[in-house]
Amino acid sequence: MISVVTLFRRQWLVVEKVPFPYTGIVYETLKSIPESRSGGHRLWRFGIGLMVGLIFQIIVFLTQIFPWFPDVFALRGNCCGYVWYVKAGTPLAPIIGLATANLQPVMAAIAYFVPLKILFNSWFWYLIYIVLMQVANYMGYYTGAENANGCGRGWCAGFSGLIEAPFKFMAVSQAGGMIGLVVMIIWLSRSYISETLRAAFGKKDGKIKEIESSEPISYRMTWMLLILSFVSTIAIFMFTGLGFVAALLMPITLLIYLIANARLYSMTSFYMRGCEHATSLYRAFLWPSRPTNITSEFAISATFVRTETDVSCAKYFGAILGSFASYKMASITGTNSRDAFKVMIIVMLIVPIVTQISLFLIIGYSSIGLDKAGIKSLIQFTNFENRFGGNPDWDSMPSNSPWLEYVIAGIVIVCLLSWLNARYIWFPFEPIGFLNGTSYNSLISGLWLSCLVAWVLKTVTLRVGGSRAYEEAGIPIAGGLVAGCMVIFLLGGIIGIIRFFVPF
């Protein structure tokens, strides 16, 4: 992952100037510390956002920790605390495609840093999804969906336009769309990749030598690390019992879905969970359906390909997203990229060791203590049959058969949107908003509302005050709001842990 990030560092950060909104928010906070001495207008605006974030999150924290505290923002009973969801029997329940809406102001503040076109597409394509679902319902599809609660409209068979015909958007957007996004990243970067390959093979002119001198390591070393780690990954999985094809598909799958997620993260600070759709290549080439006799090869493949592309379990998410964010921060602050590379290497050597030790301790304590207390352990939660390769779970991800046609359609749609967006600056649609609007990001996380609110606020800011108002007022206020909420997140987490052991 580090070698991939190092390879694309200059293309994304120097040539394309990809925004990395969350890194920008962190930098906004850091920049406000030295500015506090002068007390300029920008600092006061950051302070306004900070106070709003603090007040909101304090109220939320008190609501969550004290049952007697009034539910000011009507958060109790919502999905995951901040996500409102449609409930059966309510006036909005007949809108079949409407599932959830994210109520957390932090998400809207983060989205405020996202490019305007992506914000528009994120809520626009979710609106299209709602319309399509309503039309399909009138035609006899998704019957009974009006009796399903919000999360069920995304997860449950029979009600979800992500899984069920005629749309199967999980196969279209989350599976095929992510593949198409990577295909276009490579295609649109083909001259850049060719340039790095020529430099790796020693064909360097004066311009390339000057460019390479600012890179963390030489292009030859970058490509050597990438090839060596790719081959090593295949060898390790073959050693565990996978055949060559299954072992080869593992790094390919990881690279596809994690590079696509890195692109989503770099443009929006959001990402796509991969547990439900990253099985596509394995289903296409090896196991179209769950085998009758479960082999070690299938069990290992199914478990790793799902956990390692899903943010709640994956170890590689941090490696690729954190590395890109580190290079971005180094670029903003003027830090030498070579120093950033060294720090990343040290961190990546330490973190896996600590993680594995912690995991073994958690499993051990869980088996010894929590099981006796009647609480489900980590081992039970991640049971293979129920979570990764169980029947019909494997056969329904990214959707039930036929599904491959939908994946191909998703690749074509995203490639076409990417090409038109790159070719014509006036073209109103682009691929990342399409992926956000027709996936779990909107149906389960409810991010369509965050993008809609941010789109309205950012549009008004730019129309009324122009880019100066956005830079000098909008960004500091949004950054301060995020910082304020994060302070209470941290303190609230600590207090919550204390309250668990010492009830009060």
Number of domains: 2
What is the residue-averaged pLDDT? 87
Strand fraction band?
under 5%
Distance between the termini: 45 Å
Shape: globular
Question: How many whole angstroms does the radius of gyration measure?
Answer: 24 Å
Number of strands: 2
| Class based on secondary structure composition and strand pairing | mainly alpha
**Helix proportion of residues, in percent?**
55-70%
The total count of helices amounts to 21
Order of helical and strand elements: HHHEEHHHHHHHHHHHHHHHHHH
Q: Biggest sheet: strands side by side, in what order?
A: 1-2
Low-pLDDT regions: none
Largest β sheet strand count, sense and barrel closure: 2 strands, antiparallel
Describe this structure in words.
The chain is mainly alpha-helical and 504 residues long. It has two domains: 1-16 and 163-427, no CATH class; 40-159 and 439-504, no CATH class. The chain contains 21 helices and two strands. It has helices spanning 2-15, 21-35, 41-65, 105-111, 116-138, 152-155, 169-188, 190-200, 206-213, 219-239, 244-268, 280-285, 296-307, 316-333, 337-370, 378-381, 384-387, 404-423, 431-437, 440-443, 447-501, and strands at 83-85, 100-102. Strands 1-2 form a two-stranded antiparallel ribbon. The longest helix is centred in the C-terminal third of the chain and has 55 residues, at 447-501.
